[in-house]
C-alpha cells in the first residue's frame, strides 16, 4: 500500500473510531430515549441527558415515556426515591400498552411519613385486568442512593429484580387459562404523582405540601429489548439471542427470591383468601414464586 493510500485508510479508521465514540457517548441519553409526557418543567433532563428528575407539587406531578415500543426484553432503571416525608406520593417505573384492554407490568413506590419504610408495589395486568398485587418493604433506604430496578419480560415469565436480586416471578400459565401479556407492545413509563387518597396507610396519611416539591431521580435507563413499530430497524433479530429471552431462576436466584419473600414481602394476593372466598386464582396453585 502506498503512503497516500495508507494515510487515507488511517484517516478513515480514525474518523470511524471518532464516529463510534460519539455514538457510544450518546447511547443511553434521556434526550434520545424518552419524551416528557406531563408536568412541564417539573420534569428535568440533566447532565447532558444522563440524569432525569421528576417533581410533584400541589398542582401537578410529572412523568415520561420511552420513545420506542417493545415486545419482550429486559428493562433497567436506576432510581433514588423522594427523601424525608414522602407520604401520599407514588413514584413509578412500569411497562404499559395502550387501550382499554391494555397490558401492564408495574413497579410502584408508595411513599411514607419520615422514618417509615417505602412500600414496593408490583402488579401485572393482562387485557385490562390486574388484581395480582405483591408488596414488599426494602432491605435498604431507597432514598439514600440509587438502586437498580429491573423488569425482565419474555414469553415464559416476568421477573421483577432489585439490584439484580429477584423479588417476584409471574410465570406464563396461558395453557391453564391464565392470560399472560404476550402480544401487545409496551412502552416504558415513569411518573411521580399525588395518590394521598390511598397510597399511605390506605389514605389516612396525606401529603404534606409544605414539604413540596417532592423530587425523585432517575438514571441509567437501558432497554435491551425487541423494538416494534416505526423506526425499529435494530433489535428484533439481535434480541432473539439475548439472555433475557430465556431468563429464569437458577438455584442462586431461587434462594434469593425465597429470602426476599420470606423476610420482606408484606402482601401477596395468592395468600388473600378473604379477597378470593371462592378459591385462589389458578396461577396461585401452580407456581411457588409469583
Structural summary, described in words:
Mean pLDDT is 88; it is low at 3-26 and 234-239. A hairpin with a 7-residue loop joins strand 6 and strand 7. The chain is globular and about 50 Å long. It is 16% helix and 36% strand. It is an alpha+beta fold and 290 residues long.
Layout: helices, strands, pairs:
Elements: H1 3-26, H2 30-33, E1 34-38, E2 43-46, E3 51-56, E4 62-66, E5 69-80, E6 89-96, E7 104-110, E8 119-125, E9 134-136, E10 147-153, E11 157-162, E12 165-171, E13 187-194, E14 214-228, H3 236-239, H4 251-263, E15 265-268
pLDDT < 50 runs, ≥5 residues: 3-26, 234-239
Number of strands: 15
Q: Biggest sheet, in brief?
A: 8 strands, antiparallel
Helix content: 10-25%
The order of strands across the largest sheet is 1-4-13-6-7-8-9-15
Q: What spatial form do the alpha-carbon principal axes imply?
A: globular
* Class from secondary-structure proportions: alpha+beta
The N- and C-terminal alpha carbons lie at a distance of: 64 Å
Report the sheet-strand fraction: 35-45%
Mean pLDDT, nearest integer? 88
Please trace the helix and strand order, writing H or E for each element: HHEEEEEEEEEEEEEEHHE
Number of helices: 4
| Radius of gyration based on Cα positions | 21 Å
Summarize the structure in short.
The chain is of the alpha+beta class. Helices cover about 15% and strands about 35% of the residues.
Key phrases:
about 290 residues; alpha+beta; 8-stranded antiparallel β-sheet; 7-stranded antiparallel β-sheet; 4 helices; about 15% helix; disordered N terminus
Amino acid at each position: 500500500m502506498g503512503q497516500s493510500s495508507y494515510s487515507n485508510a488511517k484517516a478513515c479508521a480514525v474518523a470511524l473510531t471518532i464516529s463510534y465514540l460519539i455514538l457510544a457517548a450518546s447511547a443511553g441519553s434521556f434526550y434520545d430515549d424518552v419524551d416528557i409526557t406531563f408536568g412541564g418543567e417539573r420534569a428535568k433532563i440533566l447532565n447532558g441527558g444522563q440524569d432525569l428528575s421528576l417533581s410533584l407539587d400541589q398542582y401537578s406531578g410529572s412523568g415520561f415515556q420511552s420513545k420506542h415500543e417493545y415486545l419482550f426484553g429486559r428493562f433497567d432503571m436506576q432510581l433514588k426515591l423522594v427523601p424525608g416525608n414522602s407520604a401520599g406520593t407514588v413514584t413509578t417505573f412500569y411497562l404499559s400498552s395502550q387501550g382499554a384492554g391494555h397490558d401492564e407490568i408495574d413497579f410502584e413506590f408508595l411513599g411514607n411519613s419520615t422514618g417509615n419504610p417505602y412500600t414496593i408495589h408490583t402488579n401485572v395486568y393482562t387485557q385490562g385486568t390486574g388484581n395480582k398485587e405483591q408488596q414488599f418493604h426494602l432491605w435498604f433506604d431507597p432514598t439514600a442512593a440509587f438502586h437498580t430496578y429491573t423488569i425482565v419480560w419474555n414469553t415464559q415469565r416476568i421477573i421483577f429484580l432489585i439490584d439484580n436480586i429477584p423479588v417476584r416471578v409471574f410465570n406464563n400459565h396461558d395453557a391453564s387459562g391464565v392470560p399472560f401479556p404476550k402480544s401487545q407492545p409496551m412502552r416504558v413509563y415513569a411518573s411521580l404523582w399525588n395518590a394521598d387518597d390511598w397510597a399511605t396507610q390506605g389514605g389516612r396519611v396525606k401529603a404534606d405540601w409544605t414539604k413540596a416539591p417532592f423530587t425523585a431521580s432517575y438514571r441509567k435507563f437501558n432497554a435491551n429489548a425487541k423494538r416494534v413499530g416505526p423506526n425499529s430497524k435494530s433489535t428484533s433479530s439481535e434480541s432473539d439471542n439475548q439472555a433475557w429471552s430465556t431468563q429464569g431462576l437458577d438455584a442462586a436466584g431461587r434462594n434469593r427470591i425465597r429470602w426476599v419473600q420470606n423476610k420482606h414481602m408484606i402482601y401477596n394476593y395468592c395468600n388473600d383468601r378473604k379477597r378470593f372466598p371462592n378459591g385462589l386464582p389458578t396461577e396461585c396453585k401452580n407456581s411457588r414464586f409469583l
